[in-house]
Design brief:
Layout lengths: L3 H11 L10 H13 L4 E5 L6 E7 L7 E6 L18 E3 L2 E3 L7 H9 L1 H6 L6 E6 L9 H7 L3 E8 L2 E14 L5 E12 L12
Parallel strand pairs: 3-6, 3-7
Antiparallel strand pairs: 1-2, 2-6, 4-5, 7-8, 8-9
């Protein structure tokens, strides 16, 4: 059962055209405003053009490593694809939700944001870090490097080879490029969970 709050968040998120060649700032501004409404401050890290930004926020204490909930905000282009509906307008059909990014990864981001009110009401012993980045291939932010290596756990919902996985693991190593950006991180262990066979690879990514 999808809650009204989760459905609203997912509807709003997929409506932002964050195709990788475009800016993601409208979506980031939406998330920042949402978090601020629940008393959560966030940090933005911009790319060189200042047309894209990563967002980093912490709920709970900053004195311990915590768990990072991580996701990219960009989506792949819809050019040349035979969509029967507006790809940036959420459609519910046969128990599934269809839109560009509904599974990869705005569905995961919506799930994370929907839990923010509950997380802020509880005295979390382990902090929760929300990290949204502009591109799936690189975090593009030096500020993420320290956060990654100090984590207790990383959770990232991702579409892999047409299947929706949740990867859960502990960070072992972070490799940096010449600018000091963390491009690759390696988990010491992970689990891959298939939440539902009803998540179809065609038309939901």
């Amino acid at each position: 059962m999808v809650s009204d709050d989760l459905l609203r968040l997912l509807t709003d998120l997929v409506a932002f055209d964050t195709t990788s060649r475009r800016s993601n700032l409208d979506l980031i501004d939406y998330v920042q405003h949402y978090l601020r409404g629940h008393g959560v401050d966030s940090e933005l890290i911009f790319d060189e053009t200042r047309c894209k930004a990563n967002l980093y926020a912490t709920i709970g204490t900053t004195d311990s490593p915590g768990v990072m909930l991580s996701g990219h905000t960009d989506v792949v282009p819809v050019d040349g694809q035979d969509w029967h509906t507006d790809p940036f307008s959420l459609v519910s059909r046969d128990g599934c939700f269809y839109a560009r990014g509904s599974a990869d990864m705005k569905g995961f981001i919506a799930c994370v944001l929907a839990q923010v009110p509950q997380m802020t009401r509880r005295p979390l012993r382990t902090p929760a870090h929300i990290a949204l980045y502009w591109d799936r291939m690189a975090t593009g932010a030096p500020a993420f490097a320290e956060a990654l290596v100090n984590l207790d756990c990383l959770i990232a919902g991702e579409m892999l080879y047409g299947t929706h996985y949740v990867l859960i693991g502990r960070i072992q190593n972070v490799r940096l490029n010449e600018q000091g950006d963390p491009l690759i991180y390696v988990t010491r262990r992970y689990r891959a969970l298939l939440p539902s066979e009803r998540v179809k690879p065609d038309g939901v990514g």
